[in-house]
Each structure stands twice: as structure tokens, then as C-alpha cells.
Amino acid sequence: MDFGFSDVQVQVQTLARKILDDKVSPATLARYDEYQQERFDRDLWRTLLGAGLPGVAIAERHGGMGLGFTELGLFIEELGRSLAPVPVLTHCVAAMLPLQQFAPAALQERVLPAAARGDVLLTGAFWWGQPGVPDDPVDATLEAGGLRLRGCCEGVPFALQADKVLLAARHADGTAIVLLDTAAEGVGMSPMQVTHFEPHYRVELQDVLVPAADIVCHEGGEALLDWTRERCIAALCAQQLGAADYAMRMAASYTSEREQFGVPIATFQAVGHRMADCYIDVECLRLCAYQAISMLNEGGDATTEVQIAKIWAGDVGHRVSYACQHVHGGTGIDRDYPLWRYCLWLRYNEMTLGNSSAHSADLGSRLAAGQALFN
Amino acid sequence: MKIQFTEAQRALRDELRAYFSQMMTPELRAECERDMGEGGGPLWREALARMGRDGWIGLGWPEEYGGRSLSPLEQFVFVEEVMRAGYPFPFLTTESVGPTLAEHGNDWIREHIVPAILAGELLVSIGYSEPAAGTDLAALQTTAVRDGDDWIINGQKMWTSLAHFCDYTWLAVRTDPDAPKKHKGITMFLVPNSDPGWSCTPVHTLGGVRTNATFYDNIRVGDDHRVGEVNGGWKLITSQLNRERLSLINFGPISELFNRVVQWARETTLPGGAAVASQPWVQANFARCRTLIECMKLIVYKQSWAMTEGTLGMADASAAKVYGSEGFIEVYRYLGEVVGQAGLLRSDSAGADALAGKIERLYRTSSIITFGGGTNEIQRDIISAAGLWMPRASR
């Protein structure tokens, strides 16, 4: 049992943090508030691609670094710390990883190296699922040339910016997974305005033909969906950890300097203790998120551990967000001070892919069925 | 980073689990129940000595003390398993005072006392609190005064738990009444409970557990019974308390209790025939407990790992103590709700059930843990100062 970081892991963290510290600041983030601009920093994205970070968990033969999900998770934690406007969760976790795991070799060779270079931007339509209520697949019919799709996918981040969307399509014989070309005839996009200003879209498909070469699997797509959902959840937990830790440290530092009654307000036990509770909360999230990531990295069953991490990510995000705002007083909600953006992200990560209550209900029913006990 | 047991650690856990399931005979279990889960009885003593002979107590200790030189993580797995088996393991002696004695003790202590602890033959109670010194421990008034080569000790301690069957007391005394800062005038001693000047009277608590007031009347000890520097006792106290905070949070018994209650709820039916576990509120309680205990497990494993690496921080030891102690109480409550009215019956009552009776007792005994080992308010002060660098009010 090893809770430490390897040299390579420290290098990934350090590299990511250096680039993000250089390129992301409250001033750069302010450009995207209220959808003034599309929240996608392409200059930062090119720098990250140049450093190889989006391909950290992609095999070297596909142009990646050849490391694992743990390193990708540590990179994503840094993105949470900085709230960087880049499509890492969608491109890397919701698309590249499942393609690398499930796609036929020819499709992998065609897409993954280009995706690792950044020549092709990918996304996945897997972000609206809840425990027991997965994303509804679009309808499909089998044709000689491939699959014909109709229907719509809700809440696909970066769909308009992406070249291809990985999505599930249900047809008479089962569930297929396809890599949809966003330029194909019949694809429409309507922007959705989300609480944290990330570009999300409703993707509408009117009799869109996906050629056979872009089909990841014809049937049995549920396995890919489950596999991908767990990794997306773990990635959200890592992002939540980075954001919660950063917001907490901002509050600790603010209360150490802000004086009332002639003393820093941090010296009041009521304030110190609330921050101590945040510290414990963030530590719990850290441990559960790292455990989930580490177990997924090893490839074994991590259903319970991923679910528990998401419950913590939801609860901790909520509690830390409100505690940090509260001890900041009015400053915490002032848009000239950077805390408010963290609160929006903490909320988004809390509710996405299953909130704490929904996951708890699912965990409870699994326990009642004799699963997920301690061993 | 790899947050999973290694094969060797898994094998060790399985070996320990098998060992303890065989060690916990019905007679020993009954004796431990009778002693309110505290130990001290003859079968309990015999089992402790057997664990010592079989080399388990010193698993993670250096070989020079009779240990096996494995890491603190393996040591923790041992304590987790022995407690999961229902044996009230004297972890304060072995896991918190023992290591402090090994680190700071003189030759006599390291050659005689520490090996006897690892052999399961010597138990130490802790003498810190006094009637007027609790959270403000440095206000303690028990004294040791030099008399030639010896020291003469006088005073009274409170809450000296387990003292009535321990061999020594790890005693904090004032040796410099004029020290400008009161915590700089404190020295640590190891005082034999067999001394004629030593006495104790029981204090009975809500949980049914006995603790003690202990009295020190002109006890003469040699200077070899002193531990650490004269007037340098405070850092030994804080080092011991850091270890104690961690060893108080043991998730072995609580994960076992959780599994048993879930199993019970799956097998027990309501009047209509549905299983207790089929009720949504029961499932909600189970999910809460499962989520909470999972983190308890990770916190203690991480700290055992940090001890191996030599990086255990004060904030994290305090965080474990706060989280664990408040978590235990919550879990006992949620599981108590599941077992229902049976959870109000004392285990020797008509109609009592062993599992529910255990929860009845745990709920009563658990109120000590939020203030024992350093009250949680002080722990939160430590966390905000040492973990988040926040300034503290002067006291």
C-alpha cells in the first residue's frame, strides 16, 4: 500500500502546475464569465498538447506518454485547482480512453495519434447519466453502409468545438457505440448555458449516417458505457479535489489576514474550527478519489470505491464551497475576487454523473443485496 | 501510488484473521464481555502473552526489542485484526507509550521494559490528567522532588484508565514549579503500580467501564525510572499523544460490526415478511456508514504509511482523531437505529440479542472518544494551525 507519488507522477504534477500557473489566472478566466467568449483557451490547450499531457494515459505507439490513469488523474486534479478552460475530461477521459480500450485497431490507429497531437478534438456524450438512469442512447438502424442515427444527446461538453463525438446508439440488435463526425450531414447543435460557463450543447441527429469504419462496437456497448462512466466519475472527483483544496486554502489565507476587532478572524475558534472541518473533508475526498483512481489504474473492480469517492466529492464540494464563501463574508461572492468561480465548479462536479443522495441510494441497495461489504 | 494491499499484506491479514479466530475461544470471549471490552482477566492475560511469544505484538518493531522489523502498516494490520476479532488489545501500552519509551528511554527501560511490553507481559497506564488539569494539561500539580539519587513523587491523577490491572504508570509530574512557561517544568517517569505509596479508587462511567483516580503518596523511585530530560517531558507527552490519537481510530471492529448488522438486516424479516434491509431508510443508514468507514480505513492506512516514511504530520493525526471519534458515534447511532428496540436492551437482559446488545453498550461507551486523547476542540485548533497555517488565539 503506497500513498506516495512516484518520480514520474511528481513530474506530471509539476509540469501541469507550471504550465497552468503561467497561463491561467483570475484575469484570463474572467474573459469567459457569462459566456462572453467560448470557454476554451486554445493557446493553453496547444501548450498542454505540446507538453504531451493530454496523451499522458495513451500508449506510446499512439503518440501518448504511455503512463496510466493515475497520472491522468493527477493532471486533472491540477486542472481543478486552476479551473483551466480546456476540454481534458471530454477529450481524454470520455473519448480517448474508451477508444484505446474498446475500438478496433484500425480506428485506434486512425484517431488516437491525431487526438494525442490535438489535430482531432474528441468528446463523449456520457455526462448526463445518473445511477440507474444512464444516458439515453439515440435510436439507430442498421444499413449497408453503417448506422443511421436519429435523436438527441443532452449536455455534451465541447460538442461544437469537437471533430468527433463518442456516443451510444440503440438499434434492433442491441447498443452500439459510434464515433460521430460532427461535420456529417444532419448533425445539429444547440448551445446550453451551464452554471459554470463551460460550452455544452444539445446534439441533434436527423438521419445521420455513421460509416462502418467509425463504429466502435455494434453490440454490447453497455460494457464501454460502464467502463467509461466509472473513469469519468473518478476524473470528476480528481477535479473536485483540486478545486476544493484550492478554495479551502484561499479561505485559510484570507481569514489569516482579514482583521476584525483588531485581530485576524482566523484566531476565532468558530472560524478556525470550520476551516479544520474543511481540512478533514478535503482529506477524505483526497483519499477516496486517489483510491478510486489507483484501483481503476490497476484495472480491477472498483465499483464501490468509485461510488464512495463520488459521494464524498458531492458532499465535500457542497460543504467546502459554502464554508469558504461564509468565512469570506461579502468578499466570497464578489466577482472581483476569484472564489466564486470555484463555487460554481464545485457545484457542477457535485451534481454531475450522480449526486451524493443518488449514489448513496444505489450503494444502500447494493449493500442490502449483500454486495459492497468490507472484506 | 497504489492504494491496495500488496500480496504479502493480504496474506498477513489472512494469517492474522485465522490466528485470532482460533485464539478467541468462547471462554475468552465471555471473559472479555464480562470485563466490558476492557480486558484484564486471566484468560485475557494468557492470550496477550501468547501473542507476545508468537511474535505478533512487535511485528513492526526493530529486532533489537524482539520485533520482526516489518513496517507500521503491518503493525496496524495486526492491531486492526486483533481488535476485529473482539479482543480488547492494550494498544495504549503497545502502540503509543511503548514506542515513546523505546525512543526516549534509558538503557534499563529499553532492555527491560520495552521487551516485556512486546512479550505481552507488562502493561502501562497513563497518568496525565488531574482534578484541575485536563485540556490545559501543563497545569498539572503532581510533583517529583529530588532526594539524593532518587525522586520522591506526590500527587493525584484522574481518569487513569486500566491502572487497576497495569504494572506501571507513565506519569507526568512537575519538577520545576518556577518554570516561566508551565509546560517547561514537566518530567516523565515510569512509576511501579506495585509501590506501597500507589493506590487507586474506581470511577464508574456511563458506559459501565471502570476508570480510576490514582494517588501517589511519597513514592520513591530511582533516576533510572525517569524518561527523557528533566523538565523535557512535554515533547514526550505530545509525541505519545500523536501516536495515541492514531491508535484510537481502529476501523477493524467497526467494519466487522457493520458487516454483521447488514447481514442481520438481510436475514431478519419484518412482520409483513420483507427483510429489514429492504427498507429505504435502512439502506440509507447502511450507505452512510459504509461511506464513512471507508474513509476511516483510508485515513489510518495513510497515516501508517506516513509513519513508515517518517512524514506523519500533527494536523493529520488530529484529523484522524476528530474524524474517527465523531464517525464512530455516528455509525453506532445509525446501526442502533437499524437494530431497533433490541438496541436498547442490555446484553444480560431477557430478550437481549448479542449483536444489538453490543450496540447498546458501544453507544454508551463511545461518548468518551471525542474528548479522550485530547478534546476535539484542541484537535481542530491543531488542524487549522498546523494544516492550514492559520494563526491561533493566544491562551
UniProtKB/TrEMBL annotation, chain A:
Top-level taxon of origin: Bacteria
Lineage: Bacteria, Pseudomonadati, Pseudomonadota, Gammaproteobacteria, Cellvibrionales
CDD domains referenced in this protein's UniProt entry, alphabetically: ACAD (cd00567)
Pfam families recorded: Acyl-CoA_dh_1, Acyl-CoA_dh_N
Originating species: Kineobactrum sediminis
Name assigned to this protein: Acyl-CoA dehydrogenase
Acyl-CoA dehydrogenase/oxidase N-terminal domain ranges (all copies): 8-119
Family statement: Belongs to the acyl-CoA dehydrogenase family.
Cofactor: FAD
Gene3D superfamilies: Acyl-CoA dehydrogenase/oxidase, N-terminal domain (1.10.540.10), Butyryl-CoA Dehydrogenase, subunit A, domain 2 (2.40.110.10), Butyryl-CoA Dehydrogenase, subunit A, domain 3 (1.20.140.10)
UniProt xrefs under SUPFAM superfamilies: Acyl-CoA dehydrogenase C-terminal domain-like, Acyl-CoA dehydrogenase NM domain-like
Sequence ranges assigned to domain Acyl-CoA dehydrogenase/oxidase C-terminal in this UniProt record: 235-366
InterPro entries hit by this protein: Acyl-CoA_Oxase/DH_mid-dom_sf (IPR046373), AcylCo_DH-like_C (IPR036250), AcylCo_DH/oxidase_C (IPR009075), AcylCoA_DH/ox_N (IPR013786), AcylCoA_DH/ox_N_sf (IPR037069), AcylCoA_DH/oxidase_NM_dom_sf (IPR009100)
UniProtKB/TrEMBL annotation, chain B:
Start and end residues of each Acyl-CoA oxidase/dehydrogenase middle domain: 126-213
Keyword DNA repair found: no
Cellular component, GO annotation: plasma membrane
Cofactor: FAD
InterPro entries (UniProt xref): Acyl-CoA_Oxase/DH_mid-dom (IPR006091), Acyl-CoA_Oxase/DH_mid-dom_sf (IPR046373), AcylCo_DH-like_C (IPR036250), AcylCo_DH/oxidase_C (IPR009075), AcylCoA_DH/ox_N (IPR013786), AcylCoA_DH/ox_N_sf (IPR037069), AcylCoA_DH/oxidase_NM_dom_sf (IPR009100), Mycobact_Acyl-CoA_DH (IPR052161)
Domain Acyl-CoA dehydrogenase/oxidase C-terminal: 231-386
Keyword flag Flavoprotein: yes
Keyword line: FAD, Flavoprotein, Oxidoreductase
Residues of the Acyl-CoA dehydrogenase/oxidase N-terminal domain: 6-121
Gene Ontology terms, MF aspect: flavin adenine dinucleotide binding; oxidoreductase activity, acting on the CH-CH group of donors
Superkingdom of origin organism: Bacteria
Family to which the UniProt record says this protein belongs: Belongs to the acyl-CoA dehydrogenase family.
Annotated PANTHER family: ACYL-COA DEHYDROGENASE, ACYL-COA DEHYDROGENASE FADE29
Annotated protein name in UniProt: Acyl-CoA dehydrogenase
